[in-house]
Each structure stands twice: as C-alpha cells, then as structure tokens.
Amino acid sequence: MTEIAILDIAIALLIAQGLMGAFDTLYHHEMTVALPQRHNARLELVIHAVRAILYGALFAGIAHLQFHGLWAWVLAAVVLIEVGLTLWDFIVEDNSRKLPITERVLHTVLAINGGALFGLYGVQLAQWASLPTALVAIDLGWRGWVLSLFAVGVAASGVRDGLAALRLARQVPALNPFTQMPHQRVLVTGGTGFIGEALVQQLLDAGHQVTVLTRQPLNAAFLFAGRARCIYTLNHLHPDDTFDAVVNLAGARVVGMPWTQRQKKRLLDSRLHTTDQLLQWAQRTQHKPTVWIQASGIGVYGVRSPEETLTEQSAPGQGFMTELCMQWEQAAAQATMLGIRQVVLRLGMVLGPGGALPPMLLPHRLGLGGRLGSGQQVMAWIHREDVLAIIAQALVRPDMQGAYNTVAPECVTQSTFATTVGQLLHRPVWLHIPATAIRWLAGEMAQIFVDGQKAVPQRLLDAHFKWRYPTLRAALQNLV
Hints:
The chain is an alpha/beta fold and 480 residues long. It contains 16 helices and 18 strands. It has helices at 3-32, 42-64, 70-96, 101-129, 142-170, 194-205, 217-223, 261-284, 320-332, 357-365, 384-396, 414-425, 435-442, 447-450, 458-462, 472-479, and strands at residues 65-68, 134-137, 185-189, 209-213, 229-231, 245-248, 291-297, 309-310, 341-347, 349-352, 354-355, 369-372, 378-379, 381-383, 402-406, 412-413, 429-433, 454-455. A seven-stranded parallel sheet has the order 5-4-3-6-7-9-15, sandwiched between helices. Helix 1 packs parallel to helix 5 (142-170) and helix 2 packs antiparallel against helix 5 (142-170).
C-alpha cells in the first residue's frame, strides 16, 4: 500500500471518528445523561477533558502537518496516551453509571475505528520516523478544513468538561428535605426518571427504605449502588411487606415522538398500566400505605389564554394533554376509596440537571436562541429541588390532600425565558421560529412549545410553602 493511500484511509477514518465522537458527546453525554451535571461523573469529566484537548491537538496537527524524525515519536506518544485515557474511561464509566445500549455500541464502534485509524497512521509514522526531524506543511484540501473544525469543537468540549468538573468540585450539595422526618418505607415507580432518580437517591441518603418498581431492575440496582430494592413486578412483594408511602411517577416521555394514535395509546398505557398494578397491589396488601403521591401535569388545563390565571379549582381544558392527565388522575383516585390519603402533583416544566432543560439550552449555547411562535405563551416551571421538597412535605403532612399546581410562583413568557437564558449564557437572542412551522413539524405536540398555561400554585401559597428557587433567574443561575 502506498504512502498516499495509507494517509488517505487514515484521514477518512479520522473524519469518521470525529463525526461519531461529536454525536456521542452531544446525544449521550449532554442530552441523555447530562454528564456535566452529575456529581458521580466528575472523574469521567476530567478524563474527557484531557482526552478531548489531546484529540483537538491531534486533529489540528494531522490536518496540516507531516511529522518527520523525532516528531513522529512525539505524536506516537500522544496517541498512546490517548489510548490509555480511553481504556481508563471505559473502566470509570462502568463504575459510575450504567451505559445505555446505544452508547455502549457506539463506544465499541469508536474503539474499532480508532484502532484501525491509529494502526494505519502508525505505519505512516514509522515511515516518517526515518526522515530528518521536521514539521512539514501539507494541504489536505477540504479534509484539512473539516479536521480543523473538529479540532476546535473537540477542544471546546474538553474545556467545557474541565470547567464542569471544577464546578462540581466546588458545588455545595443540594439540601436534602428528607433528612428531618421519621423513617419512611417508600415504594417508587418511575424511580429511574429525571425526578424519580433524584428522589430515590435523596431518600436513600437520608436513611429511608426504598423499593423501586422498574422494567429494568438490574440497571436500577446499579444506578442506586445496590441500596434500593428493585423489582420488576409487584407480584414480587410479599403480602406482609409494609410501605408508608407510594410515589407514582411512572410514564413515558410526552415530548419526543409525534402524537400519532399509536403514540397517544403508548403514553396513556405507560401511565394507566402501572397505576392499575399499584391499585391491585393496594387492594390485596395487608398493610396499606398512609399516603399516595401521584404525578400529573398542568396540561390538565389544556391550551388557555395567557391572561387566564389557573388555580387548582379551574376547570379542565380540552385536547390530548387534558385527556392524558385526567385519565391518570382519575385512575389513581381510586386509592382514596381504600382510605389512602392522596396528593396529586400537577407538575409544570421541571428544571434541573437533565430532563427538558439541556435540550432547551442547546440552541442558546450555539447562539441560536430566540422566540418560539409569539413568545407570549406562558411557561409555568419549577426547580427539581422544590419538587422534592414538596414531595417531602406531602409524605408527612396529613393536611396535604388533593391536587396541587406544582410550579414556582413566578410564571414567565417564553420570550422572557429566552432572554434570561441569553443573558446568563452571554449569547444573542435573535432567532424567531414561527408557530406555523413548529405546528407543521410537531403536529399536535406543538402545543407544548407554542401554547401554555398560566398555572399558579395557589394551594402551596396558602400553605406558606417556601420555594428555594421562586424566580426563574435564581433557578437558572443555579443550573446554568
């Protein structure tokens, strides 16, 4: 194989490596698991930071230079360090989190591609090593510019991960609202979701006993380091098993696939099936729980005018979101006939390290933030820490019963949200996407983005609940 052929194949593999690495970083690390927000991923972030900066140097060097003589050995040493960091990263990942199948498969492909890439480039370096020591400029045409772009991107990613690791090291741990309460035995569904995972971790940290109902008990056991009992079906519970509380959060993500009839059925079934299972268990268990905390959403009010203030006493609206929330609430309400106190959390948009916020911030980070539709649609939101604090109060306060709008006292328009994010990220807010385009792309699901509800937490205000993050700016400053 000629020198030119070896180099051309190596460059092609390097471009493929860059594309797959970019997808892995954006989709898995940022959007799926939100690594920069996870305390247990701090070492992984440090490894990613060093490796990414080295990768940036490799992309930039290979794009424009030939490495002759001693420089070939220098580059070979950098490649060996890169391989060592990758192997270390594999070990740390397996000890800190359970990788989703797509990420594990992609990492395998990246390893195979990287092995072929470095093997071929190693042959090229061996040939260059016999030449006099020099850095020789080369012109790869468009491929050189692509690799240069990758160099900037991967180096920026490394700097971001390094700063995230530093921030996590300095970050004050979130207050645990479950520490100052009597010992609780809690059954949680949806315990591996965005709210559920934080709930289970904090309950366990506070010394409570937690059982998680999940479709993937092995993954959940790994996630909670074996501290929680993880079961696939409620049939695994013994009739004498006793729980003080049930927290029902299980349900497929509403934002995602278009709301076809099949998807609507999936969203309904994911909520009603688990709720029916819980009701059947509650009917046959010898020791019924004292309280049942039930998730729902402010979508129960449907699409409403931005001027209309919606309290817990407001009438339901119309449309699929109303149907979804109402059926879920009505199914769970049967627990009250068994003498179980029930608290229904009508959740707004929950902001936290993960969930909906990272995808919402991504356009702003890229300088593409702006207004969706009119921008006047109201966003009722709440910080995840405040959701957990409300759940903690619901567990122990017998006067809490019925539906609660689980939102912050400050509602904002989507335009205000975009402006606030832009200010905190120091990015321009200029893009305007017409509502017509969003409705054409997302169909009925577009109402989540271009419509809204001015839901206010009247019952929580009447109960003098103290939000840790009552304003959007305070919440985003904590998270961004």
